[in-house]
Task: structure prediction
Amino acid sequence: MFENLLNFRDLGGRVTADGARVRPGVLFRSESVAYLSAADTSRLVDDLGLATVIDLRGEKEVARNGRGPLEHQPVKYVPVPITDVTRGLDNVASFYLEMLTVRGPEVAGLLKALLEPGALPAVVHCEAGCDRTGVVAALVLGLLGVPDGDIVADYDATQANFPAMNARWKSLFVGRGYPPERFVEESWVERERAMETTIVAVRERWGGWEGWAAAHGLTADDLARLRKLLLEA
Result:
């Protein structure tokens, strides 16, 4: 589908526990769109009708790598920096839970941004489209009523893209003047059960995804609107 995006996919097509289908072509998840080629940009804007970019990268990441060609397109840009909660934690699932806790208001805010008139279709991305984006994607799918197993499957789909992403990151690392032997590859091993653990933790702490939403200021009307926008009638 794309020349330069290695970890992009549609959240549509999943089926909820009560049999509704998540609407395709409305909400996408991705690695950084700074990597887009001209043809990729045309595919997103002209073919898919992209209206909003939600960028989860921190300010330093954006300053270092830029926003890419979408910066010059008539697409709304919503920065939602999710940073400074990754270090010193025991495991990846702890990071995900910390993100939902410490950055809960920001995450709730981006969901409300999706409810704005004309906001969709939208893409949510961070650098790899794995951790921060993975949590947001899980949250959205969970609020729509997608079963746990399908949420985990969507998260795990990133694994197949890790070799190509590592190769890209190594090339960028070396291009900045660092010796190649100092590059440390990202590993999927520590992520193998991270989403399952996160889902269990969300139930234990908030009673589930809807409990998290209520605790962070999202109303029943907000959730109803989200489902109306993202589920097929």
Q: What stands out?
A: The chain is about 45% helix and 10% strand. The domain at 8-230 is CATH 3.90.190.10 (Protein-Tyrosine Phosphatase; Chain A). The chain has one domain: 8-230.
